Amino acid sequence: MIQITNITKTYNGTVRAVDNLNLTVNNGEIVGFIGPNGAGKTTTLKMMTGILKPDSGTVLINNFDMQKEPLKAKQVIGYIADSPDMFLRLKGIEFMNLISDIYNVPTNIRQERIKTFASRFDLAEVLDQPMQSYSHGMRQKMMVAAALVHDPAVWILDEPLTGLDPKSAYELKKMMREHADAGNSVLFSTHVLEVAEKLCDKIIFINHGKTIFYGTLDELTNRYPDMDLEKIFLEMTAHE
């Protein structure tokens, strides 16, 4: 479960990237986080994961306060950042083992999970190669596998489908649904509104760091009948 309450983040004392934002992602839910470039999505996700500290407000991850119990909160998070270009000098298998070590994943369990991810994302042939030789899409798949190798209860994913081939995108979407159906929480940002429309239980629209809608797709379409999600989004942000 994710609960953020009245979080605010200002840069350089003048630019308010996130403005008194509230959001709850219940167990068993997939929530799509949507907004134009510069709306505050990545800043919000980084505050949720403890990378950035909010100026005010609280972040609870499975009832652990990110400011008061950061290690306990981070242990239950699987986070995919907005860029896969990191740890590139490591081989894929070295990177997977590094993340497994950080989260204390036992050897036999990590081996089985790495094998599963390698199969689902076509990674088996590149695990012994340095990640700097990977394509962008291959690096993205490796970030997905590493983020989930410790079987986290809460998934926080920043544009996770970007760069993935259709098969890998399908596998990740399937895994997200399976994870939520098992009673866990998934929050992901996306610019692909069709994906949000098909996959999410709820969506949150933000603009200028503020919530302009949070609820189910049925609630949204009842407000804007005969419009698809893309048109609704454009309509809502045009008046902000």
Biggest pleated sheet: 6 strands, mixed
Structural class: alpha/beta
Please write the string of helix (H) and strand (E) elements: EEEHEEHEHHHEHEHEEHH
The percent range for strand residues is 25-35%
* Unreliable parts: none
Query: Could you report the average pLDDT, rounded to the nearest whole number?
Result: 93
Shape: globular
- How much helical structure, as a percent, in the residues? 25-40%
Cα distance spanning the termini:
30 Å
What is the count of β-strands?
10
Cα-based radius of gyration, to the nearest Å: 18 Å
The number of helical segments is 9
Spatial order of strands in the largest sheet: 6-7-8-3-9-10
Q: How does this model look, in words?
A:
The protein is α/β, with parallel strands linked by helices and 240 residues long. Helix content is 38%, strand content 25%. The chain is built from nine helices and ten strands. The chain has helices spanning 41-48, 70-75, 92-102, 107-120, 136-148, 166-181, 193-199, 217-223, 229-238; strands at residues 2-11, 15-25, 30-34, 56-61, 64-65, 77-80, 154-158, 185-189, 202-207, 210-215. Strands 6-7-8-3-9-10 form a six-stranded mixed beta sheet, with helices on both faces. A four-stranded antiparallel beta sheet has the order 2-1-4-5. Strand 7 (154-158), helix 6 (166-181) and strand 8 form a beta-alpha-beta unit. Helix 3 runs parallel beside helix 5. It is globular, with a radius of gyration of 18 Å. The protein starts with a strand and ends with a helix. The mean pLDDT is 93.
